[in-house]
Amino acid sequence: MSVRELVVLGTASQVPTRHRNHNGYLLRWDGQGILFDPGEGTQRQMLRAGVAAHDIDRICVTHFHGDHSLGLAGVIQRINLDQVPHPVTAHYPASGRHFFERLRYATAYRETVRLAEAPVAADGPLAVTDAYTLDACLLSHPVESYGYRLTEPDGRRILPERLAAHGIEGPDVGRLQREGALGGVTLDDVSEVRRGQRFAFVMDTRLCDGVHALAEGADMLVIESTFLDEDVRLATDHGHLTAGQAAAVARDAGVRHLVLTHFSQRYSDPAEFERQARAAGFDGELSIAQDLMRVPVPKR
Fold first, then answer.
1. Which of 37, 67, 229, 291 is catalytic?
2. pLDDT tens digit string along 210-256?
3. What pTM value is reported for the model?
4. Separation between Cα atoms, residue 218 and residue 151, nearest integer Å
5. Catalytic annotation on 283?
6. What is the mean pLDDT of residues 55-82?
7. Alpha helices in 166-297 (DSSP H)
8. Which pLDDT value is given to residue 2?
9. What number of CA atoms fall less than 13 Å from residue 220's CA on the CB side?
């Protein structure tokens, strides 16, 4: 059975709190898993969330600030300790290659898994699989930062009423799907395009073109909202977004499910992020991320 969901491992910005671990997010996409921004403590959060090293096929790091990357050392060593049977690919800003190498080899351990490094140096596609295309877009932060986007290939949705109108039923439905035509009836005659699902991941950034490009038409947008709107100047100075800014991006991009995360420890009331997001005019599904929560990707 295919599963598409976000497993939230940590939601704090800069420093962890009693209730929020450093960042960490696992996207389950059918049989594959993509781990985004493993901050300090991610390995333990994985255990608490029921996420195994075997679940990881890719690691995507947006940038090399500690709350987004200090967990790499433990996660990589765990992948090798558990002898994950498949190769794992790591994406990260090319300018931070020396940070990645230091974390990868922070201590001695036995390498048992092929970990391929695929640094990001420009906007564009990073990987194309049968299940998705993975793209990156440059963001605006004091250090080089990239956001990531998964796009599923478009498919076809069979329309039962059209099948019935053409008298196609039983095993012939499968034949038509496999062969594209049956007795003069084409697949286009009995189906419509089903747009592939789209998932976007945007961490530390000011408002910029990359934010809007990543969010456009996303079924789920996971986006930082470090500050509340009254602290917009702080947000801009430090290269971050407010709750209202993130929600306005989602509103204008037609996002179906918005997940706000990466909260400053200065705020004690998470509900205020939701209030400001709604005040910005976003009326879709909205989640204020909490550690260890699971959020399904909206179905098409």
1. 67
2. 999 999 999 999 999 999 999 999 999 999 999 999 999 999 999 99
3. 0.93
4. 9
5. no
6. 98
7. 171-179, 209-215, 232-238, 243-253, 271-279
8. 78
9. 25
